[in-house]
Design a protein that fits this description.
Layout (H helix, E strand, L loop, with lengths): L9 H24 L7 H14 L1 H10 L2
Helix pairs in contact: 1-2
Length: 67
């Protein structure tokens, strides 16, 4: 039996992945530019950079295994 008989098409899955990558990048930039209250600026900047640059290889891998 097929575990996912009504799997969304490639266009839908690609659209969701592109949206998720965009949201991740925007969140990383917001974290870098304006840290939440109570978080030291240096830690927030490091977290934002790690989130932005560290996720790039993961994004590329997800785009490769998408089809």
């Amino acid at each position: 039996r097929d575990p996912a008989p009504h799997r969304p098409g490639l266009a839908v899955r690609a659209g969701v992945l592109v949206a998720a990558v965009a949201v991740n990048d925007v969140l990383a930039k917001l974290l870098y530019a304006e840290p939440p209250p109570g978080v030291p600026v240096a830690q927030a900047e490091f977290a934002g950079q790690l989130m932005y640059y560290g996720a790039a290889p993961v994004h590329i891998a997800l785009f490769v295994v998408l089809p």
